[in-house]
Every structure is written in C-alpha cells, then in structure tokens.
Predict the structure.
Amino acid sequence: MAERLGWKLWDHQLTEEIAKVAGVDPSAVARCDERMDSTFHRLAKVFWRGSYERNMPLAGANVFDTDRFVAVGQEVMERVARSGNCVIVGRGAPYFLRGRADAFHVFLYAPRAEKLRRLREMGKNEREAEELVDTIDQDRITFIKHYFNADWPTRCLYHMMMNTAIGDENVISTILTTMHTLEHIPAHV
C-alpha cells in the first residue's frame, strides 16, 4: 500500500523510532507492542509507586514497560502523522490518531484458518501458530481496554474493515478506491 501510494511506511521503523526516542533497544519496544505487562510487573509497579521508599533508586526502575510504550508511542505517532503522507501499521495508531481528520483508518482481519496458514508459511509449526492466533488478539483486547477504555476493535474508529482472505491486490485496490472516493466528499462540519 505504502509503495503504491509513494508514502513512507511506518511498521518496523515505528518500533525503531519509539526505541530511539525512549532510549531503549527495539526488542524492548517489540515486547510491549499491543500487550499488557505481566501481572507480576504491574503489581510490582503498584507497590513501588505506593511505597514510602520510592525516592530510593531501584535497579531497573527506568525499564521500558507498556506504560512507557503508550506514552512514547503516542508522541512518535503524532509526530509521524504531522510529517505527512504515510502508512502506519498497528501499535494502537487508530486510538492515538483518532482525532485527526486527515487519517484514514482500515482494520484488516482474516479468518482463523487463514491466519494459521500465513503463520505456517512464515515457518511456525502448527502448535506455535495456534498459540499465536489464540493469544495475539486476546493481548490486543486487553491492551485496548486498559489504555483506551475501549473494545477492540472499536469499529467507529475505522473507515473500513476488510477480510484479507480476498487477497492482497483486492485489499489494496479496495482501500485505494475508497480513499480516492472519500477525498472528493466534503467533510461534515
């Protein structure tokens, strides 16, 4: 899509940019990508924040966690969106950029069997593929509920939702046609 439009693609580069701004390794950002921190980590933060000892240095206190991912992610995505035409993939972008009239949001999904097929094509065995399919969407549901107090997907944030099982070319053509059509419709004030 980005290539066809001649726009900048922000997918893995977004992870790298968030890491750069936060001053952490990209792997730390990838661990937080649309996932909640572990229960242990969240409990430890609650106790630490409420502790009279919180003024004492804590080893690893500045560790990159999901709260930091959300704060830095919003800052980076807003900057990226202001910079001009681009395609931003995932990472809560429709929630961070929901107030931007110049953003076009698309939710892409696939049936379970298609997701499993794609993961096997990427080299995952059947057990790994099933585990990923079973956990990724649940992680996103939990993340969006916690950080945005919304259901995932929040349908009203998207201009369109498409089943990618129809094929990449059909998906891209439909999105481009819809974007082109909406460019010629005056915005409601």
Residues 38-61 have pLDDT under 50 and may be disordered. Residues 2-183 form a domain with the Rossmann fold fold (CATH 3.40.50.300). The first strand starts at residue 8 and ends at 10.
